[in-house]
Write the structure tokens for this entry.
Amino acid sequence: MKWADQIIDILSGLFLGYGILLALIYLVLSILATLAVRAHQRRSYYVSASDVQGSAYLPSVSLVAPAYNEGLSIVTNVRSLLAQQYPSYQLVVVNDGSSDDTMSQLITAYDLVADAYVRDDSEPSIETAPVRAIYRSTNPMYTHLTVIDKVNGGRADAINCGINAASTTLILCTDADCILEQDAVQRMVVPYLLAGDRELIACGAGIGIANDAIVEKGILRDLRFPKAWIARVQIVEYMRSFLLGRMAWSQVDGLMLVSGAMGLYPRSRLMEVGGLDRTTVGEDLELCIRLRAHMERLGVRYDVVYIPETLCFTEAPSTLSVYMTQRDRWARGLWETMRKHRYLLFNSRYGRMGWLLYPYWLIFELAAPIVEALGLVFLVYLTATARINVPHALYLMLLVYLLGCLFSTYAIALYTFKYQRYTRWSEVLRLLAVAYLESMYSHPFMLYGEMRGYVKKIAGVKSQWGNMSRKGFGSGT
Amino acid sequence: MTLTLLKVLIGIVCVLIISLWALMLIARALRYRDDRRHVEIRSLLGELLGSIATADVSNRQAQVQELRSLTSGVKGRRYLIDQLRLVQDYFSLPHLSSELLDRLGIDSALVASLHQKGNMHRARAVVNLYETDSLIPEDMLDKYIAHDHIYLRRESQIALIKQRGWAALPHLSASTRRMTMWQQIRIIEKLTTYFPVAQKDLLLEAWNQGDESLRMLCARLADSFDLLPEMHGMLLEGAFSDDKRLSDLCVTLLRNLDGNLQPESMPISIYSAHPNYINISKRLAL
């Protein structure tokens, strides 16, 4: 049985090495995130959202918001998207063949009438599912609004349709179920305004959780702490992911993902790459990687930037089953994107993308759930065969748990100290409690959801969005 | 991994977590203190600006002293200037803030900051000086407009325009770094506010420097000062530039000319050898 012991030793070493490497990476990311937040604050001294608002000659922006069966909240959410203070913007809502009353609600609430659709043949366009009609409002209050009614083709197809219809310099992709801060567009364009030698090709911002929040006339009035535990967990997850992960990668020019719910892109670059990929459910990640690869091929210096402020609020899954469905979809999207862009691996033509970023995503994002699941199986095997050193294992598990708590605490501290959300002590304490219980409560379900997504990909199941039922936002009295 | 090592690591992580809790407490206390100080600064500022406006400031020495002590540190001074900038934005009363800064001795502190070692301090001093209508020594601006530090370079270029107007425009090509769009917007704002009469010859001189981002600024200035119909030759040259950002801007501006420009007045055929000739002429609908 000597060879079996040797294999176990090797496997133990591999799992341990992976864990140590991951902890070190998180440590480095935390330091980088701190530097990035500091750099962002320095920039803000020179250009603030209020400076931008009062300026002339700003780039025009189109908010493109796809909507599919959003009848429950579409009127409120479009009002939120229309409440932007930016002087030069248009809102393009794309009804992606909804089977509910989304379109009729929009027509009634915003006095929409069908407009003759004139396609500009001098500009190229992205291929999409057929457009049924384009609507504009007869109400002078909603002159910024354009609604496109089209045959169902998926989220990416709907956004592509919006990009075709937009005539602005910049495109801000969001979702019709998102509530934006009123100065969100002003803040999002700042990195574009500050781009110098390097061209800005994508800009993202923090996403917040607005379950149980009070929304009045499309404006977020009271960001209440969600009632559902699983939604609370996602507040901490988002803080960790956006503030530590993405800010850190942004600091070292390594950001590969800009969230689909809040991503700003130059329209001309989107047209060059043919818009979003309709064949994947991870279209935000795929777009960002494709844009980066495109710029590498062109040999043009570029930036993908992240803003630490939370500018967009969305309703997070409030049941474990919807949560697992979401993670299942994210896992499939990641799998599809990594597979599609496998040519990047160690490809020197793509510089750091080929040598650092793609391998990182492969080893520490795509493979992480697989390694974790295999680790659990290995642990069960060691326990069953009495090959485990119980005190060692317990202390190691405690260390891993505490490391998770440390990074979560750091993200919460950074967020609550720097930004004006969840600043009450009761909220901070609740966030900490959620962070410390997360690994025992939601993490196993997340792992299950991700593994289910991978299994579907391996089994060749066709990728679908999945059922993401929502309750809608509360309204003030 | 030995048990002792694991225990030590667990201890370290626990200490770090507890330190973070302590930091959160301290940060909260500091924020509370700063908030109170800011309220005091705002209240004194309101009183003093009012008394300067009514020429009653000589009777307010106690308040001047109090505000001076509250803003003696870098943080306090920065907050005061931010508030003054807000006041200026809303009421356009720059002389009030300059006089107050003078009385508080902040003007001289800002000029002294220009000589500090940190580029960030210098850049902040430059922006605060030009935003409060104070003069910056021109030799310093000449030195800083091509500086490596992005903020110092950018703010010095804006300050130079604010002080010298159109005459400074061709000098902006001294920097080999690209001008940001924000910088261009600020320069346009300064020129339209303080030097509203366009200097076409200086604009052309700046265009002929050949720097792409300076050309973008010239194109935007031509648009802002309604010079596009007479300068479309310049824009056409920009439309066929290899620089995508300049090309896109010039194409957009030319397209915006609509009926003001006839295809026959566009000497586009001289660019027929350009690799993007067909694409750009299609976009220009010529």
